[in-house]
């Protein structure tokens, strides 16, 4: 698999998964356009992978997101890695403020990113791709994660609707589904923990790189599961 000549944007490049994805994309030869709200983490990974462009963008601001997308002119792929969690309380007791937080993090950022990058993806010289990282909670919600599950489900539905729109331009949007992410740092901090239901960040990164490659252009509107 190669991403030589492909321009890829990564939203959430400074998070727990972001650096692994950026490294996998860079290793495959992609030209990287990175953003994160944490400037220090963003600069660190941008320097490591020699990103073409790295800037702090408020993805809750549609105009700012559109300006970021427009700067690239066209984009062969976009990986949306922005995440967050709030939960652990039964549905009947959970504060609805949790929904407000998760709505912004998990839904609004996806909406703004797809709206902003739709023209850039459609202008790509090869068929453009969009990848959302989601959770199995979207399809199998639990009482203590109601707001999180509902937000993930909404983000997935939005992405699959975007996939339907991209069919006209031979583009594609797909969802990568996991239970939880485990990083090398997490394993080092908890060497005796099995992490049996977790998906390795490195495995997710390589899968995302494939989903953004020309090898996956026939796939559109699909949920790819990497969890037990």
Jot down its keywords:
two-stranded parallel ribbon; 42% helix; 7 helices; alpha/beta; 228 residues
For the sheet with most strands, the description reads: 7 strands, parallel
Unreliably modeled segments:
none
Q: What is the strand arrangement across the widest sheet?
A: 3-2-1-4-5-6-9
Give the terminus-to-terminus CA distance.
26 Å
**What is the radius of gyration?**
17 Å
Structure annotation, total helices: 7
Instruction: Please give the number of β-strands.
Output: 9
Mean pLDDT over the full residue set: 95
By secondary-structure content and strand pairing, the structural class works out as alpha/beta
Coarse shape: globular
* Percent strand: 15-25%
Order of helices and strands: EHEHEHEHEHEEHEHE
Amount of helix: 40-55%
Account of the protein in words:
The protein has helices spanning 18-27, 39-49, 62-72, 97-122, 146-166, 184-189, 201-211, and strands at residues 7-11, 31-35, 53-55, 77-80, 129-135, 172-178, 181-182, 199-200, 223-225. By secondary structure, it is α/β, with parallel strands linked by helices. The strands form two sheets. It has a seven-stranded parallel sheet, with helices on both faces. A two-stranded parallel sheet has the order 7-8.
């Amino acid at each position: 698999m190669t991403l030589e000549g492909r321009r890829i944007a990564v939203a959430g490049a400074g998070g727990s998964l972001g650096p692994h994805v950026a490294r996998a994309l860079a290793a495959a030869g992609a030209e990287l356009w990175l953003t994160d709200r944490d400037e220090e983490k963003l600069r660190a990974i941008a320097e490591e992978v020699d990103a073409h462009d790295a800037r702090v963008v408020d993805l809750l601001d549609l105009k700012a997101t559109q300006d970021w997308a427009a700067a690239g002119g066209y984009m062969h792929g976009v990986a949306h890695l922005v995440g967050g969690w709030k939960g652990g309380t039964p549905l009947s007791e959970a504060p609805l403020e949790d929904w407000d937080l998760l709505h912004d993090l998990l839904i609004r950022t996806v909406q703004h990113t797809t709206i902003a990058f739709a023209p850039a993806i459609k202008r790509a010289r090869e068929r453009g791709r969009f990848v959302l990282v989601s959770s199995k909670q979207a399809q199998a919600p639990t009482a203590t994660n109601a707001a999180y599950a509902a937000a993930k489900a909404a983000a997935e539905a939005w992405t699959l609707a975007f996939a339907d729109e991209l069919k006209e331009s031979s583009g594609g949007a797909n969802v990568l589904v996991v239970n939880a992410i485990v990083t090398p740092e997490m394993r080092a901090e908890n060497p005796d923990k099995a992490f049996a239901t977790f998906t390795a960040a490195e495995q997710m990164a390589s899968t995302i790189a494939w989903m953004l490659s020309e090898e996956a252009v026939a796939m559109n509107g699909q949920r790819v599961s990497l969890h037990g």
